[in-house]
Design brief:
about 425 residues; Peroxisomal Thiolase, Chain A, domain 1; 2 domains; 18 strands; globular
Length: about 425
């Protein structure tokens, strides 16, 4: 077994997100601070929903869409008809990550490469269309691919089939936190002998049924313009805007990557996860579960809170959730919190469910490569009540040798990932 914290490096990044298709397009857009949350264009937005408590919830009118994505440009048409948009995005991101890593699974034993993805939403658009046909036209109108296209494991399976990956594969379903959990699982698979893992998450929940489900959570922004949308840690934050897309990676055994001349963008040095075990919708009233996840991730990496250069926060965008995260950071970092840079650039493109933390990992790796950290997205009026040293305005040049990334999933999931430089 490889030494803990020394075994898994990320050698390839594939991004398909509102910020762009490809890692460099995403990075350029993020550094420019381009707000990609906007009124939905792909369908008529639903009417206001009702929360489980019976209160009216804002209609989901804002979202981050992947503009200009045409599946025919990336995929075989025969595969397109079998799969949901969520899988189209994942297949495209996987191809980009493999190309970026210059890793060809066919050059290795098929059991040396695996696929471990996360999904918090599944194949929404495909499933909604086929269920509509069932109720309007009867069961004979439902396509045969309905049985697989909506399923959470569909993207993992399709990537494995397309690239011939026979290693230990799977799917993690833990809401937003899954985007980090799958990377923790990838590192575990590598420690057990797998050479490389395609890991990460994309989502495609900008569809009528999925957006209605989001609205019932009561956590969506009531804003109707991009500037009024997703703005975590702001004085005016009132919720998040959903989005689609995410990022996939090639995670390799460090020694194997070195043998083929690849150092990697960064190392997965530490990972931990906890659960609130409190409520199916509300977060725990105290921040201890997230505190434990951060501390255990640091312990796993063999580091202390003093070693962290910057935190990529979860930044849910509601006052309750953001305050809890700020309190958790305060318990972990103590007096240092007043000077520790904190960012959440993903709010430029919306909250992508499991795709959000995966996209944050991509952004963090590029920040590590270039020594510059983008600010909190769409934040013009930070609230000092959080007590955070938020990066705002322009990107900041700074040390990026150790980066902490937090993620929290709806229902009480908490995860933390520590990335360290390979230089």
């Amino acid at each position: 077994m490889n030494a803990p914290g020394q075994s898994a490096v990320i050698t390839g990044i594939g991004v398909v997100a509102p910020s762009g298709i490809g890692a460099e397009a995403h990075w350029s857009s993020t550094l420019r601070g381009e707000v990609k949350v906007a009124p939905v264009t792909r369908f008529a937005t639903p009417t206001p929903a009702v929360t489980p408590a019976g209160a009216a919830a804002p209609a989901a009118v804002l979202a981050g869409e992947v503009d200009g994505f045409q599946p025919e440009d990336h995929l075989d048409p025969r595969l397109i008809v079998q799969t949901d948009r969520w899988t189209w995005l994942a297949l495209t991101a996987a191809g980009l990550a493999l190309d970026d890593a210059d890793y060809r699974p066919s050059d290795h034993d098929p059991y040396d490469t695996a696929a471990i993805l996360a999904s918090g939403s599944g194949g929404n658009e495909f499933g909604q269309r086929e269920i509509g046909r069932l109720w309007s036209q009867g069961r004979r109108a439902v396509g045969a691919y309905q049985s697989i296209a909506w399923f959470y494991a569909a993207s993992t399976g399709q990537i494995s089939i397309l690239h011939g990956l026979k290693g230990p594969s799977g799917v993690i379903v833990s809401g937003e936190a899954g985007g980090l959990d799958c990377l923790g699982e990838a590192r575990r698979a590598i420690r057990r002998g797998t050479r490389a893992v395609v890991a990460g998450a994309t989502e495609a929940a900008v569809a009528p049924y999925a957006m209605t489900c989001y609205a019932t959570s009561g956590m969506l922004t009531a804003g109707s313009t991009p500037e009024e949308g997703y703005r975590p840690f702001s004085r005016h934050a009132d919720g998040y805007a959903p989005g689609e897309g995410g990022a996939l990676f090639v995670v390799e055994d460090a020694a194997a990557a070195h043998e083929r001349g690849r150092r990697g963008y960064g190392r997965i040095a530490g990972y931990a996860a906890t659960h609130d075990a409190h409520h199916d919708r509300r977060p725990a009233p105290e921040p201890d579960p997230l505190v434990r996840a951060m501390r255990r991730a640091l312990d796993d990496a063999g580091l202390t809170s003093d070693d962290v250069d910057v935190v990529f926060a979860d930044g849910m965008g509601t006052r309750e959730h953001d305050l809890l995260e700020a309190r958790a950071l305060g318990e972990v970092f103590g007096d240092r919190l007043a000077h520790l840079p904190v960012t959440a650039p993903h709010s430029l493109g919306g909250r992508l469910c499991a795709g959000t933390p995966a996209l944050n990992v991509a952004t963090a790796l590029l920040a590590m490569r270039d020594g510059v950290v983008p600010p909190v997205g769409n934040l013009t009026d930070p609230d000092p009540a959080y007590g955070l040293h938020l990066i705002t305005g322009e990107p900041r040049g700074m040390p990026t040798n150790v980066i902490m990334i937090n993620a929290r999933g709806y229902g009480g999931f908490n995860s933390c990932l520590i990335l360290t430089s390979t230089s």
